[in-house]
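Q: What does the assembled structure look like for these inputs?
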Amino acid sequence: MWGAFHSIGRGLLWAVLGFAVGAGGLAIVRLLTGHSAWSFEASFSLGYLGALAGWLMGVGMWERWGRTWFGLPAAGEGPHDWRRYLTFTTDHKVIGIQYLVTFIAVFLLSGLLAMLIRVQMLDPVHPLLDPGTYNRVMSMHGILMIAVAVAAIIGGFGNYVIPLLIGAEDMAFPRLNALSYWLIPPVAILLLLSQAFGGWDSGWTAYAPLSERNASGQVLFNLAIITFGLSSILGGLNFIATIIHLRARGMGWARLPIFAWAIFITSWIALLYTQFFAAALLMVQLDRIAGTSFFKSAAGGAPLLYQHIFWFYSHPAVYVMALPAFGIVLEILPHFARKPLFAYRWAIAGFLGILLMSGGVWAHHMFVAGMSETLLAPFLVTTEIISIPTGLVFLSALGTIWMGRLWLRPPMLFALGMIFNFLIGGITGIFLADVPTDIALHDTYFVVAHFHYTIVGGEIFALFAALYYWFPKMTGRLYHERLAQLHFWLMLIGFNGTFLPMFWLGLHGMNRRIATYPVQLQGVNEVVSLMAFLLGLSFVFFVANMGYALLRGPKAAANPWAARTLEWQVASPPPLENFPRPPVVTGHPYDYGVPGSAHGVIPREGAAGTLA
Amino acid sequence: METTTHPVAATPADRLAINQLGLWLFFASEAMLFAAFITARFYLVGVWRPATVNEPLGAAMTLALLLSSALAYRGLRAFQRGDRPTALRSLRGTLLLGCLFVVGVIIEWSTAEFSIVSPYGTAFFSTTGLHVAHLISGLIILALVSRLVRSGHLSPERPWGVLAAVRYWTFVDALWVLVIYPVLYLL
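A:
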């Protein structure tokens, strides 16, 4: 049993050695230049670089990859049982499940922090937590959920599904893929460890100058997020190469399933913009440990620069969260409406439009930050314009449902829930894009409600849609239908009950990121908290259902949804090499009800290229 | 370089095309990181720079990098022809010039008359520091690849390691010659 943890144990051991090398190397340089050997923030940062390298090599990168750099033969894949989930494995299906399990665990953990926040908000006079602790809890909830939003769908379903969906054997760079996943555990360890060094109370946004003055926990946060960004970049790079080069024969760009399109566009955003978050935090780090003054106004630096660089990534990042969600919803709708996807090409045009515009709207987060007033109107206009391509995607979803015979199974319920929630999230966004209303609403619960509607109501609902859709494929088992429906209705009611009143609270002046609020808002806050607990409760049914399905669930057929896309044409779960022979694509993926049409076929043995 | 026990169905030619695309994507991403630091330079001090920037040293370092890239290219071509001695000689020359550049940075840092605390110093030390970190990683990669060429693990039939290392080196050089040097020394 414990032998299964061999790789992870060796990774941890090498990490400790790597830390000693990094911090020790710095100590020598510091002693030679007449400083003390140890300075926590600098020594920890250098030590971490060594520890990260040690961890990756120890956990399996050395055996599978590093040896070839020295002309030594690389080790092969380990045993093909459950133990490979704990090793540096290159199979995209294993990596997808590693991501999913990790991020669902993070999601549930961070959800518990949200419950804690709602307990706090029950009583504004005698709150549970002191303001400092509250800020640290709120910050931790924020960054963990951002990580889930950025990586759960792309890392989980992107990895598991994309190669199957496009008829490939694996990703373009399987070892890089494993590397992307194994960069995640150090992120988690750093974020937890940071609490031992005073934590950080600067929110997930880590605005300078606060992030330059608070406790040393901030340094661990910076290192964690820079690492996480690297994982995100390498993942994006891998998806772009995979989708360009490894599509099955006959799968032109106009036959590419819409989820693959969404991941393709998202990957470009992740590849190009993520560096700016890393850069912003690296500058904070340099200000703290190397004596630069990027954001120190007393020395001629500019705190506002932080916000520009940060939002230049973090606004496009909302599309990294939203586009895969829309990809999933558009992927699921045709199968459950039994209709072709409406306006497929317009939806792709919408994705492309979002990609092109995503880098030109960031300063709408900064209307009250004190930037030049000449920038207000241009960013108002670009922000309003980007809702047009988003609208194209939305209309594609509505058109697919229109006049369809909807099959209301759990994936479809969650997809429809996503459309409903995102509509509210989108419409309330207009008030935050317009300068006059935003000045009044900035930093109130109106903003909290808005982005939870887009990210939780939008993306997390899509995440569960995907989970209930592909679960039979991934595990070969069926979940309990009624429990899944109960999860959906409790989540929908709990979610809307929690966040709809928050718009009202924001309009009545309740500030976000504050440990307390005006007493006259207590009644509504109690309702919000109770609904939040209901929302939390819904996931108990989800976890119970997953446990039941994995242990006792009936065997799933290869294609329980009678879907046309390639991943459903192989066994559940798919064999190691995905397809017995490379599939051939002959038609559009979503032509439900079109007589005589087929999306793709797996040629019979010895008859490659002919129709089965 | 790319061999797994769970192979991707692709011919060697496809494999090379996939690897090259991956490398270009990586360059695009890294370029954005430098773009952020260049942006900071203009945001903090505009086009101003102190008169004490060591222009002759900067020009000498730039020249060293230009020469090193030319040598790396010569090494790559020799390697592709199968002329291993010339390839190894050229790569060694590249390494030497790269090390000279690092020495240049050390001299620059220890003699600079502006402080790291000043806004220009902030931009200067952070951008050159980020660049020299990339450059040192390039030196390590070139050294490893040279070893693999000498031992015969990389050959004209399996060129990816050399191709990638030389391309990365050229990318890091181009960042300096085309962007960092003009922005920090010439404006």
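Chain A touches chain B through 53 residues (CB under 8 Å).
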